[in-house]
Write a structure and sequence with these properties.
Length: 384
């Protein structure tokens, strides 16, 4: 289980490295906040596009292939980062950097989904919540470490050193996965993707609404700090990751499928409170606290709903189900950057956090509706 979480940690270390650097790089080239948000969100375009392909591929070919292909994409993203700097034209440099972001998004999708399913296959479905939780700890712990590390690398060697680090991570991940024995794919009839999507959709919609907050924090919190004249915006990203990891370690062991919706509703309320605090922040300390609370709340929404999603499909379709469920994260992150950038361009860098808090509250409302519908269905079943 820990080895599979380690694959995820490496992949998301690569995801975290550019987060606090690329928005400023785009502004230095003369582009506005919308393009800065798009540059951060671009990787999720590829992640969204690949999710529905990755899940069935894992179900057919096993997870090791997905991990290896994903790390190859990470290495390609590092090479693209270095190549982008060779173009004197800002438009050409941005285009190549966007291509690298798309590669990184595909790598994220391949590694994260494959590693999670690899771990669940090793420890068994009854322990799925543990694997999902450790996968998330690896994800956001690596992002929390990657953001300040990316700033340090950029300060010492520019984006060339950052690109070299991305390439090295990709090569190391490939080497680590290739020495592990592959797992034979389960031979059985699998559910059609449309049937899996229909079962996952209600829970995925809640996950997407919750993920808007994560997308706004990662895309704009450093710009929010800069606009306010506060130093060290990366601290908010690290605080978000720290709150995320603490939440997973404290609460993951208590998760069960029958309490998933109730847990999700509680943590959606916590996330909304953290985002509201970010919006109201009058000091960097308040903003860092708001980011930490946001991470604390967002952390448990995926596993709380994920343990329910796992039970919606037979074992031979779990790769497709997890990939489809994660697709809602990617779709939300893809939309969050440009939409929040448009809001910021018309007002200020604080208002996107208020909009994200509203989305979390809508997710809370939907979750309460799902709980009510579930209780009504159970009562009707017992009566029948």
């Amino acid at each position: 289980m820990l080895l599979c979480a380690g694959y995820t940690a490496l992949a998301y270390l690569a995801v975290g490295l550019p987060l606090a650097v690329l928005p400023g790089w785009a502004l230095d080239l003369g582009f506005g906040p919308v393009v800065g948000g798009l540059l951060v969100s671009a990787q999720y375009l590829a992640t969204v596009a690949s999710r529905l392909l990755v899940g069935p591929m894992i179900d057919r070919s096993g997870p090791r292939r997905g991990v290896v292909l994903g790390f190859l994409c990470c290495a390609g993203a590092g090479i693209a980062t270095v190549v982008a700097l060779q173009f004197p034209s800002p438009a050409a440099a941005l285009a190549v950097m966007l291509a690298g972001r798309l590669l990184l998004g595909a790598g994220e999708s391949l590694v994260s989904t494959s590693a999670m399913l690899w771990g669940i296959a090793r420890i068994g479905a009854p322990q799925a919540a543990r694997m999902i939780s450790w996968n998330g700890i690896a994800t956001y712990g690596a992002i929390a470490a990657g953001a300040p590390l990316g700033v340090v690398l950029s300060e010492r060697g520019g984006l060339v050193l950052l690109g070299a680090a991305l390439t090295s991570i990709g090569i190391a991940g490939c080497a680590l996965a290739l020495v592990q024995p592959s797992m034979r794919a389960r031979e059985a009839v699998r559910m059609p993707i449309r049937s899996v999507f229909a079962r996952v959709f209600p829970f995925g919609a809640v996950l997407a609404l919750a993920t808007i907050g994560f997308g706004v924090v990662t895309a704009f919190v450093t710009l929010f700090f800069a606009a306010a004249g506060w130093p060290d915006g990366w601290m908010a990203l690290s605080a978000f990751g720290g709150g995320f990891v603490a939440s997973r370690m404290l609460f993951a062991a208590r998760l069960e499928s029958r309490s998933g919706l109730r847990s999700a509703s509680r943590f959606l309320a916590v996330e909304a409170a953290g985002l509201a605090l970010l919006y109201l922040s009058a000091s960097p300390q308040m903003a860092v606290a708001g980011a930490a609370i946001t991470g604390l709340g967002f952390a448990m929404i995926f596993p709380a709903l994920g343990v329910i999603v796992i039970e919606q499909v037979p074992p031979q379709s779990r790769g497709t189900a997890i990939g489809t469920f994660a697709l809602f994260i990617d779709a939300a992150l893809c939309a969050a950057g440009p939409l929040a950038g448009a809001i910021a361009a018309r007002s200020n860098y604080a208002l996107p956090f208020a909009a994200a808090a509203f989305c979390a509250l809508v997710g809370l409302w939907v979750t309460i509706g799902l709980q009510t519908a579930g209780r009504r269905h159970e009562a009707e079943r017992v009566t029948w």
